[in-house]
Design brief:
Elements (H helix, E strand, L loop, with lengths): L1 H6 L23 H26 L9 H4 L1 E2 L5 E2 L9 H30 L2 E4 L3 E4 L18 H14 L1 H7 L29 H55 L5 E2 L5 E2 L7
Antiparallel strand pairs: 1-2, 3-4, 5-6
Helix pairs in contact: 4-7, 5-7, 6-7
Length: 276
């Protein structure tokens, strides 16, 4: 009989969800959630009751020898040793020496990066910039294309000029400062009063050359700004590393009592040198 009862499809009893009006309060609490919350609340309540009883029955004259070695902070909390053994003075000196060696290595790497970046361009009067390093670039070989007619030759010439625009702009990136462009480069060639259908190949090449100069100017400005920001970051990093190295050297010198310093009480002291 029980097997037949289990064979019949029963209704799935689903848990009630949180109403839409109360979604801001989170998931609807079920009885099992309430049981856990009530159990935790009762345990904390018992602990607080035990602590209150201990505080009420405390003897102010109670003494133990452990009180002599223990310490408390200004809030009355006990300060206990964590079991960490302090390093010896020689070990600390060795660690600081290794830190100083690592910082010197990073300083050398940063200095090399800065010098390599500075060799890429020269600053003249703090304004004009001349990019270096492009003089020894090998020239690309020429590709010869044969055309069947004059019209096809003109179309191939314009297409090839647009393809070489990017490479020509990169080659001309270092020639001059971003602000040294002439005034006629900022405006396209004047074609007022001309019929676009009657433009010759010469004027189309002039327009293409103007677009090329404009692309060169934009690339030059972008490259100059990137180089300048990277150089400033490297200089700031090198300056911070040098200050850190000097501070580490002062710490090692104070540990060996070779120079003076300031103690924990804020009193300045210095090493008394022997009179000669």
């Amino acid at each position: 009989m029980s097997s037949m009862r289990n064979a019949v499809q029963r209704r799935n009893h689903k848990e009630r969800s949180q109403p839409t009006q109360r979604e801001k309060w989170g998931i609807l609490e079920k009885h099992k959630d309430y049981s856990l919350r009530a159990k935790d609340y009762n345990e904390k309540k018992k602990r607080l009751k035990i602590l209150r009883e201990k505080a009420a029955e405390r003897n102010p004259d109670e003494f133990s020898y452990g009180m002599l070695s223990s310490k408390t902070d200004k809030h009355g909390r006990k300060i206990q040793d964590r079991g960490n053994s302090s390093l010896s003075l020689d070990a600390v000196k060795l660690l600081k020496t290794q830190d100083a060696g690592y910082i010197r290595t990073v300083i050398q790497q940063t200095r090399k990066m800065r010098e390599k970046l500075e060799q890429g361009y020269l600053l003249v009067n703090g304004e004009s910039v001349k990019i270096l390093g492009n003089e020894g670039r090998a020239k690309a070989g020429q590709h010869l294309v044969f055309a069947d007619s004059r019209k096809e030759q003109e179309s191939l010439s314009l297409t090839q000029g647009k393809k070489d625009l990017r490479s020509s702009a990169e080659d001309s990136l270092g020639q001059g400062h971003p602000g040294n462009d002439t005034e006629h480069d900022s405006k396209p060639p004047s074609l007022v009063g001309k019929d676009p259908r009657q433009l010759t190949l010469r004027k189309e090449k002039a327009l293409l050359a103007w677009e090329q100069r404009r692309a060169v100017r934009k690339l030059r400005q972008r490259g100059h700004g990137t180089r300048q920001s990277k150089l400033s970051a490297l200089k700031a990093r090198e300056r911070d590393l040098l200050a850190t190295e000097q501070q580490l050297g002062n710490q090692r010198a104070r540990m060996s009592n070779s120079i003076g310093g300031v103690n924990k009480a804020g009193v300045k002291w210095k090493v008394r040198e022997r009179k000669r």
